[in-house]
Each structure stands twice: as C-alpha cells, then as structure tokens.
Amino acid sequence: MVLDLLTLTAVPTVVGAAEAVRQQDEMDADAESPERRAPFHLVVYCDAQSKKRDEVHDTMAVLKDGKLRLWPRDRKTKLPKPHPETSESPHPFTGFYLPFPTEDLPHRPMPARPILGLVTTIPPSSAASSKSTDAKPKLNWVYADRETRELKYGPRVKARDHAVGSWDWTEDEEGITLEDEECLVAVEEERGGYGWSVYWDPDDNRLKEMDVGKEKRVLRCSFERRLAKTRRSRIEGSSDEDSDG
C-alpha cells in the first residue's frame, strides 16, 4: 500500500516534467526557426517633426567604429551609398535572430523562452578578404551598452555584460523590438548627415535621464526589417566560434 501511494504521488511530477520538456522543445524550435534565421538589413522609418528628419528617414543601419550607425542607402542597390568625400561605403548590418547561449545567462526554471539575441555579419579582415570568397562570414552579437545606451556589436564575451535581448519582431514581423518594445532612437553625434547613431531608449523619453539626451538631438524612429539578398546558407553555417568573433 505504501509503495502504491508513493507511485501515485510521483505520477503528477513525472507528467509535469514531461510537459515542461515538451513546452521547452516547442519554444526552442520557434527561436531557431528558418524565419528567424533569415538575414535582414535594418531600414529607418522616421516621422518626427524635425528639420533633421530627412537625414534619418530611409537610411539604413551600418557597422562603423564598433557601433550601429545610420547611413544613406542607394535606391538601386539598397546598400549604403559611398560617402561623397571619402567614397567610403560601410558594412551594412546584415543579421538574424539567434538564441543567446544559456551558459552566459542567469539560471531560469524550465520551461523558459530562449533569450533571442541578434547577430550580424562583420566586415572581413584584409587577410580573409584576400582568400576565397566562399569563406564563411564572421558574426558578432548586437547589444545595448547598459551605461551609455549605445547599440554596439562585438564578441559574446563582451556582449554578455550588457543588454543582449530578448530581441524580436513586431506583430507584423516588420519592425524589431528589444525587451518587447520598439525602443530604438537615432542620436546625432556629429553634424553633416553622416553622424547619426542608434541608441536604446527603454524609458521612451528621448534619453532625458542620460547626458546624451541633454546635449544631442534624439529622434524617435522605427527600425524595419528588409530581407537581405545574400547567400543565406553561408551565413547560417557560421560556427559558434564565429559568433564569438
């Protein structure tokens, strides 16, 4: 009788554990679905009432100086325009969603939705560019610096100390969100049209509590996904080591 009672009380525990595993498997599969791993660029939509709006609207996110910057895009190629003075064309953000490694995150009871990170290809080194063009591109993690609120990119060991996600898309799968909110803004760091950077504004107050909000122009924007015309399998095939930069 005692053995039977022990068996009966163990049944709910076993069923509950099995259900938790099933739910976890479903959430993991969704986080790594082909749709979330489709590479995309980020294009800016800005309807702010500002004379600077045209410097931001319809630009795209690029990688420059370790940060996500905004850059005019060519209407034909849909890629960054060459700078009129330097002919520079920075590397466009070309990224997709990828679960951030759980070993770098606080322990959470199962089932728990994976923390979706955001990775991007980075410019090839001069040594790599001289080799075969079939080489897999390197990936870095995109993160929001918790002290400055700047959006930056770097290896996992650097990103994990900051806001790494969860990133996601809006209900229409057009815009991107960080921690469930469309909370990215454009900040004018230098004048001349090429000095705008992307910042994280979780309080939706144009970074008023930060020095940057007091000294620099901040425009609310929507950052929208545009699927990239690239060799998707090459990017997805990059190893975890590549993701670490």
Present the secondary structure layout.
Blueprint: H1 2-31, E1 40-45, H2 53-56, E2 60-64, E3 67-71, E4 91-92, E5 95-99, E6 116-121, H3 126-129, E7 139-144, E8 151-154, H4 156-159, E9 167-169, E10 176-178, E11 184-188, E12 196-200, H5 211-215, E13 218-220, E14 222-227, H6 232-236, H7 240-243
Antiparallel strand pairs: 1-14, 2-3, 2-4, 5-6, 6-7, 7-8, 9-10, 11-12, 11-13
Provide an overview of this structure.
The chain is of the alpha+beta class. It has a single domain, classed as Trefoil (Acidic Fibroblast Growth Factor, subunit A) (Trefoil), CATH 2.80.10. It is 23% helix and 26% strand. The protein has seven helices and 14 strands. Strands 5-6-7-8 form a four-stranded antiparallel β-sheet. Strands 3-2-4 form a three-stranded antiparallel β-sheet, with no helix packed on it. It has a three-stranded antiparallel β-sheet with strand order 12-11-13. The chain is globular. The termini are far apart. Keywords: Signal.
State the main characteristics.
7 helices, Trefoil (Acidic Fibroblast Growth Factor, subunit A), alpha+beta, three-stranded antiparallel β-sheet, 245 residues, 14 strands, globular, four-stranded antiparallel β-sheet
